[in-house]
Design a protein that fits this description.
Distance between the termini: 56 Å
Oligomer: single chain
CATH architecture of the largest domain: Orthogonal Bundle
Radius of gyration: 29 Å
Number of helices: 16
Structural class: alpha+beta
Strand content: 5-15%
Number of strands: 17
Number of domains: 4
Helix content: 10-25%
Shape: globular
CATH topology of the largest domain: Cytochrome Bc1 Complex, Chain D, domain 2
CATH class of the largest domain: Mainly Alpha
Largest sheet: 6 strands, antiparallel
Length: 661
């Protein structure tokens, strides 16, 4: 299915497009338009981009596009709660990653020629989502071994990823059946990062776990400045099951449907309004004289068009341009097992490439000028490795470079690529390239580390690992500890008061853990807790600090630095809390806080839930201390031995009083 002539998006998102009848006619007319360029050469203009193809098994719908857009930008899909698909694909950076993170490469030494500028992902974590120490990255986020590529115009490509492992035939990863025979590279690509333990999730994470998590999340709750098309759909506060029902007819969440939705969204990311597009449509002044000269060189002497064929600015082929020795990264050969493919990588589109922070699969270059100079073999350029080098780049023995461009010509080519192929809608992130503000973009929403801590065994100071969003209602909040005495007892303390001389005065103790003593968790432990709405207040700073029993420390106690968090409400507002200790459930007996259910205070739902779970010692019934007094925040004020007669007595002492007005 292709785009219809009428725009599939609501009128409020109207946009100019070469797919409109008038623009399409201009583009077709450009087929016969001959433009004389400054060099005296002749350029035969070509049609603009064709309509985006949609596979019959996954046709376009507005509901599916919206769901895909929400999924693409929702950081809750990662087990760190801090990485979304869009984290590594910023439109203002041409759809690539604006962050520069260094992977040491195969020699495992930083700042050497084989280094890779990749994307930061998640801190290594085990199947329980406990932090682990990575052999290379330690306690820092892992870094991908290739740079990110752009989702813009990616729907035209028959294979995706640098090595083409996302194929046109899409296989459902849950059923292992073919869901799309041809044209499903975007679907094949979409399911990769969602279970990738470097990029987004902890070890052992699977589709069933992701589905369960999505059912409990309020969509895009971590984001702010949500685009208008998405905000209008989320105004009624639907959960993910409802969004899947709107897109697919039933609320079932599956890997196939996730892939279909994300791919549908990405197929609407069509960039076709660069100066070059206007130029070939007949606007002869759309390109500057320098860019026109660059275009001539691009098509002829520069040989750019052999690989980066217009109008796509890519031919979707795989080439080895000699950036690094193939042994460092075999590229396409990893997929095909064909030795002739060693060191070959997918030719990326050059549309909007001028916005990128890095270039090539390893991020080796950081400016367009460096890229062009490399091809021209300009003085000072890095070496070009001959093993399996593409024939288009092989120079004759003793002759000039295969792409002979002088400095002025190099500048013109760079100008054309960086500016002549730039769609300002991508640069300024306007529809369809608009996006929300993510948690990772808001420094004030993250944690702040205070103080230096107190050292223990081996003069090592325990480290506190604090990176999870303190969003009210986040059930997956975690605080890690490292560099602690193995086998020791470690206690996580919390305070609403700032530290004095590097130490907090605990408001509560959140529990103790035994520090691990083997493997990748040696000297480490992780505490998991919920940022519960009855315990944390939005805007009220809280301070966490680990204390570790350690005879080698002064006073027998080693301390971590302090982590300060400022809890915040999600984009749908803070989850409601009960109006009294007995208000434990929504009206339908769903335990509070509830993402989707209605709560009208003390109702039959509270009564039913209490008696459904009390005799099984359900934690939801633990509303009181043993003496029947209400539990204080964190439940640490008096003796509490779980579900006891005290809970029963408190529930009935307040239930029939109703809620205070």
């Amino acid at each position: 299915m292709s785009y219809p002539d009428s725009d599939p998006c609501p009128p409020t998102h109207a946009r100019a497009s070469t797919r409109s009848p008038s623009r399409r006619a201009a583009a077709l007319a450009a087929l016969t338009l001959t433009v004389a360029l400054g060099s005296g050469a002749t350029y035969y203009a070509m049609a603009a981009l064709p309509p985006m193809p949609f596979p019959p098994a996954n046709p376009l719908s507005e509901e599916k596009r919206i769901l895909g857009k929400i999924l693409f930008w929702d950081e809750q899909l990662s087990t760190s709660m801090a990485v979304s698909c869009g984290t590594c694909h910023s439109f203002s950076r041409g759809g690539a990653d604006p962050r520069l993170a260094r992977n040491a490469g195969i020699d495992n030494l930083l700042n050497t020629p084989d280094d890779i500028l990749g994307s930061p992902g998640v801190i290594l974590s085990d199947a329980q989502n406990d932090f682990q120490r990575h052999a290379t990255f330690g306690l820092a986020p892992q870094i991908t071994n290739r740079s990110s590529t752009s989702p813009v115009n990616a729907g035209y490509a028959p294979q995706l990823f640098w090595d083409g492992r996302a194929t046109s035939s899409f296989t459902d990863p849950e059923t292992n059946t073919v869901a799309i025979n041809n044209g499903g590279a975007l679907e094949s690509q979409a399911v990769g990062p969602l279970l990738n333990t470097t990029e987004m999730v902890h070890a052992g994470f699977d589709w069933a776990t992701l589905k369960t998590r999505l059912e409990s999340f309020r969509p895009l709750d971590l984001a702010t400045n949500i685009p208008a098309d998405v905000a209008s759909v989320l105004a009624t506060k639907p959960g993910y099951p409802e969004l899947f029902r709107q897109a697919f007819g039933t609320p079932t969440i599956s890997a196939r449907r996730i892939a279909f939705a994300i791919a549908t969204y990405q197929r609407t990311l069509v960039s076709d309004q660069a100066p070059w597009d206007r130029f070939v449509a007949g606007q002869t002044t759309a390109l500057t004289p320098s860019q026109q000269q660059g275009l001539t060189l691009y098509q002829n002497q520069g040989k750019c068009n052999i690989c980066h064929t217009l109008p796509q600015a890519t031919g979707f082929t795989f080439r080895n341009i000699g950036i690094r020795p193939p042994a460092e990264d075999l590229g396409r050969q990893i997929v095909t097992l064909n030795n002739n493919d060693r060191g070959r990588f997918k030719v990326p589109t050059l549309r909007n490439a001028g916005l990128k922070a890095t270039f090539m699969h390893n991020g080796q270059f950081t400016t367009m000028g460096q890229v062009v100079a490399f091809y021209a073999r300009a003085p000072g350029s890095p070496p070009q490795f001959a093993d399996n080098l593409d024939p288009a780049l092989v120079a004759a023995p003793g002759g000039p470079p295969a792409i002979p461009l002088n400095p002025q010509q190099q500048a013109s080519v760079a100008d054309f690529v960086a500016n002549g192929l730039l769609d300002t809608r991508v640069q300024t992130q306007v529809f369809p390239f608009d996006r929300p503000t993510l948690f990772i973009d808001r420094a004030a929403s993250g944690s702040t580390i205070l103080g230096a801590g107190t050292p223990g065994l081996g003069s090592l100071t325990p480290l506190i690992i604090a990176q999870t969003p303190a969003m009210i209602g986040n059930k997956f909040f975690r605080i890690g500890l490292a560099n602690a005495r193995p086998g020791a007892s470690a206690t996580l303390n919390i305070s609403t008061l700032p530290p004095v001389n590097g130490r907090i005065t605990p408001t509560a103790t959140l529990g103790s853990k035994i520090v691990d003593s083997i493997g990748t968790k040696n000297g480490m432990t992780t505490m998991h807790l919920e940022v519960a709405p009855d315990k944390f207040s939005p805007g009220q700073a809280v301070f966490f600090q680990w204390s570790v029993a350690d005879v080698a420390a002064v006073g027998g106690e080693a301390l971590s630095p302090v982590a300060r968090f400022i809890p915040f409400c999600g984009s749908m507002g803070c989850l409601p809390i009960g109006c009294s200790p007995a208000d434990i459930a929504a009206d339908d007996a769903t335990p509070l806080p509830s993402v989707a259910s209605v709560n009208n205070g003390l109702t039959e739902g509270d009564y039913n839930l209490f008696f459904m779970t009390f005799f099984d010692a359900g934690a939801v019934c633990d509303i009181a201390n043993d003496n029947g007094s209400p539990r204080a925040p964190f439940g640490t004020d008096t003796t509490n031995n779980g579900v006891t007669e005290g809970d029963y007595n408190l529930f009935f002492s307040v239930y029939f009083d109703g809620c205070a007005s």
